Structure formats: C-alpha cells, structure tokens
TrEMBL record:
Ranges for region Disordered: 408-458
SUPFAM superfamilies on file: dsRNA-binding domain-like, FMN-linked oxidoreductases
Coiled-coil annotated spans: none
Domain DRBM: 335-400
Gene: NFATC3
Single GO term (MF): tRNA dihydrouridine synthase activity
Any one Pfam family match given in the protein's UniProt record, by short name: Dus
Cellular compartments per GO CC: cytoplasm
Protein name: Nuclear factor of activated T cells 3
C-alpha cells in the first residue's frame, strides 16, 4: 500500500478500510466529510494499473487512471490528496502463506519510493507464528501495519481477537492499526475508541460499519441514513461514478430496507438519473449534468493556445467527416481489411495508424499514412478501433476504392447478374466473381509529404 503523502501519520487516526467495490471516490470523500483521517481505496491489482494511462480530467477536476477498454480503474481528486492510501497486491490474505514474498515486496517498495509504505495482514493459526511474521515485516522498514484480528478462513460472524492485536501492538515499535471490530464492537463513534483501547493499537480501521453508514466517524453521532445516502449520491453524480457502483454501495447502506418502496426503486434503477429520481434528487441530477456539459463544451471550444497546447499545422492531411457504422458493412470485411489488401496488391508498405485519445472526453482520433499521405476523419470516436476504421474509410473514399459496404456488395451482385447471359456456357470457365470489397488496382494519389502533425483539436 503506497501512501499519497510524505508525512502521513498513523498515530491516533480514524481510517476507512479498503473494501472491494466500496472504496471508490464518492465513499472516500463522504468518509472524510464525516471525520475519517485517512481513507483507503478499494483493492486494485497492480497489473491492471500498469496497463492504465494517467489522464487529467479537466471536466471533473480529477486525475483518472484509465484502462485500455476506457474503464476508469482509479479516480482521485485534490480534496483527498494528502489522505488517500492506494492499496495493491494479492487478493485478500493470499500472501500470508508466503512470508518470503511478503518481505521481498515490502522491501522493494520501501527502497523504491519516498512515500510511506504500510501492510495489512490477518493473524496466523498460532500467536507465535503471527509475532514472528510481524517482526519480519517490521524489519522491512514499513511505516505501519494493519492487523485484522481474524484468521484467514474466519468470516465476520467469528469473534475478532483483540488479544492477538494487543500482543502485536505490544511487540512492535511501529504503529499498529486495529481492524475487524465492526461486527462485535463498533456500532457508533464512541465504540471506536473502546476498540482501540481493547487492542492497545495506535489507530483503528473501520470497514463494514463505515460501509453501512459512513457517519460512524462523526463525533456527534450517526446521521440519519436518508441524509447520508443523499450526500453519497451527490458525490457520485458530481464525480461521474458508474451507476452500477453507486447502486451497489447504496444497497449496502439500505441492508434490511431493500424491500421498502425506496429499496425497490433503487433495485429497478438502470442509470444514475433513475437512482437520483428514486431518492428525490432528480432536479440535482439535471442541474449537475447541465453544469458538467457546459464545462465540457467550454473546454472543447478552447483554442490550442488557451488549452496550453501548441497550434498544429495540419495542411496536407486529407480529411472527411466520417464514422464507421458496423451495420453498414459485411461481417467478413472492414475498411481496414480493404485498405491493407489494396496496399499489398500495389506493393505498398502496409498502412500505419497513429491514434490519440483526447483527455477531456476520452474520445479517439486516428490518422492513417499510406504512400506518405495522411488521412483523417474529423469526427472523434469512442474507441481506438472505430477511429482507425474511420481513417481507413477516408483513405479509400478519397481514392474511389471499395470499402466493403453492403451497398457495394449489392451493386456488384446486380452487375454480375446482368453480365451472366453474355457468357458462353460452352467456352472456357468464366473468371470467378470478385468477393465483396475486393479492391481494384488503382494508384494512390499522394498530395503531400505527410510530415505535418495530423492531430487537429488535440
């Protein structure tokens, strides 16, 4: 776990635990609002993060880590900058059985980053083995250790071992964070301190009690659940949280009220707007959406100079406003396939596609280079594949070449039917008709060197 701060302290802190599908940005911000000192993100797989691209989202004022499939894997904002902990690694307690690997991972992280590194474990079957493990972990140089006071196979209904956490806290010199008290010990704010004293820990990490009602961190006591859920929904809309995640977290809060009229409306909701309407926030959704749309339009309208980007000369790039509609093409043939086949027939180098993603709205634009000439669609697409197909269409249409459209197949078939009676059935076998999208041998017209940058509006 890498901490997003060089000076984050783990003494006497209230901490939101890492929870799968729960610890996303809206929940973390809500926990901070109610008094949490530190918030952990949901557990993320390191390989997924390595595949992500860091994108500054100017519309939401966030920093997003976006996967190749355009899914936002991690989103953060300035509000939590010095208080969020990024958790990664094996799932659950997977590493407990491999202490050598634990030591190697932690030592590498401590040596490789200037940020404090912490570790979270469960207890082992014997206290002796547990103490041996935590001493070994402490020697790696980590800043703190969180101990969930249950064994790996135990579930929430099993009692948490305050004694084991206390023994660890009395053994180590680094801060020990107690975790696992939601079921037996923590029902309200005052219970958090009681759990800390019972475990002799430096701080307390709260999981399910915070998932059920994040105002558990509030000194003044729990707030009404309706109020808490409305605040959560507002954050979810403001930060464009996916509605399925919003819905899941709200279901965890409602619990036994899922069969209530409001719970049934939530269960039926299939969008963020419908969730808002179920909780009387329809007007808020419309107003926030208008504001975000206006902000997006304002940013899109900026000149390159206003956006802090160099102005690009795109002369010499052949452009058309086209998009690739899969329904208009034969299932077996795409414009990219047609263009590649034509280049092979003409003994040209294969097409080269350069694709970029616009940070503002995460849309894609592609430029294809063929025979030193560049071709680009002026319309941005929602995926890299679609943008490349659009660029191929521009190239093919500008040269009058077939692109594999179904309409081309129909015209080709009609022409063959018209010409069929003229063939001599007794003569040599007629040439097989060309398949849909087969390219004619026509030279490509090169209109420029193609050295200029093609990224208009990027």
């Amino acid at each position: 776990m890498i901490v997003n701060s060089l000076s984050l302290c783990y003494h006497n802190k209230l901490i939101l635990a890492p929870m799968v599908r729960v610890g996303t940005l809206p929940m973390r911000l809500l926990a901070l609002d109610y008094g949490a000192d530190i918030v952990y993100c949901e557990e993320l797989i390191d390989l997924k993060m390595l595949q992500c691209k860091r994108v500054v989202n100017e519309v939401l004022s966030t920093v997003d880590f976006v996967a190749p499939d355009d899914r936002v894997v991690f989103r953060t904002c300035k509000r939590e900058q010095s208080r969020v902990v990024f958790q990664m690694g094996g799932m659950g307690a997977a590493l407990l059985s491999d202490p050598d690997k634990i030591e190697k991972i932690l030592s590498t992280l401590v040596k490789g980053t200037r940020r404090p590194v912490t570790c979270k474990i469960r207890i082992l079957p014997s206290l002796e083995d547990t103490l041996s493990l935590v001493k070994r972990i402490e020697r790696t140089g980590i800043a703190a250790i969180t101990v969930h006071g249950r064994k790996r196979e135990e579930r929430p209904q099993h009692p948490v071992s305050c004694e084991a956490i206390k023994a660890i806290a009395e053994t180590l010199s680094i801060p020990v964070i107690a975790n696992g008290g939601s079921h037996d010990h923590i029902q309200e704010y005052l219970d958090i301190e009681d759990f800390r004293q019972a475990t002799a820990a430096s701080s307390v990490m709260v999981a399910r009690a915070a998932m059920w009602n994040p105002s558990i961190f509030l000194k003044e006591g729990l707030r009404p659940l309706d109020e808490v859920m409305q605040k959560y929904i507002q954050y979810a809309v403001q930060y464009d949280n996916h509605y399925t995640n919003t819905k899941y977290c709200l279901c965890q809060m409602l619990r036994e009220q899922l069969e209530s009229p409001q719970g049934k409306l939530l269960h039926a909701a299939q969008s963020s707007q419908e969730i808002c309407e179920a909780f009387g926030l329809g007007a808020f959704y419309e107003e926030t959406t208008r504001e975000l749309d206006a902000r997006r339009a304002e940013l899109l309208a900026r000149t390159p100079e206003e956006a802090g980007e160099p102005a690009q000369d795109t002369s010499g790039v052949i452009k058309m406003a086209v998009k690739f509609d899969r329904r208009a093409y034969s299932p077996q043939i795409t414009p990219k396939m047609c263009l590649l086949e034509w280049c092979r027939r003409e003994k040209l180098a294969q097409p080269i596609y350069e694709t970029v993603q616009r940070p503002l709205d995460r849309l894609f634009c592609s430029v294809v280079t063929v025979a030193e000439q560049k071709f680009q669609s002026t319309l941005w697409d929602k995926s890299k594949k679609l943008a490349e197909q659009a660029a191929a269409i521009v190239c093919l249409r500008s040269q009058g070449l077939p692109e594999g459209r179904l309409s081309e197949e129909s015209l080709s078939l009609h022409k063959r039917k018209r010409e069929a009676p003229e063939q001599d059935p007794g003569g040599p076998r007629a040439q097989e008709p060309a398949v849909s999208g087969e390219l004619c041998k026509k030279p490509l017209v090169a209109l420029g060197s193609g050295k200029e940058s093609p990224m208009e509006g990027w």
